[in-house]
Amino acid sequence: MDTAFARLPTPPYYAVIFSSQRNGADEAGYAAAAQRMLELAEQQPGYLGAESARGADGFGITVSYWASEEAIAAWRAHAEHAAARAHGRAHWYGRYELRVAKVERAYGHASRE
């Protein structure tokens, strides 16, 4: 089984899509903070999972999945998450975009290999 894929319930649910361009500063601090945010998100009511990838050029996309808009709002309001976002804007990201979408359908394929 591929652990890079989030194990999600049947839709509907919400996706928070965070696209970012890293500036290359403080790699060790960034990795530790990203791991902490994942651990903290996993403890939040309504959190369903996440998938993340980053290229060698520093461009990355993280998609977190949530049961409701209320769960997303609570995560956004979490004090430690808010502090990490502020630090990221000041130190780690040259640019980022955040989008919230409601997932109505989901399907996929996995080979038997």
From TrEMBL:
Official protein name in the record: Heme-degrading monooxygenase HmoA
Residue intervals of the ABM domain: 13-100
Pfam families: ABM (PF03992)
Cited InterPro entries: ABM_dom, Dimeric_a/b-barrel, Jasmonate_Hydroxylase-like
Gene3D superfamilies recorded: 3.30.70.100
Keywords, comma-separated and alphabetical: Monooxygenase, Oxidoreductase
Protein's organism: Vulcaniibacterium tengchongense
GO molecular function: monooxygenase activity
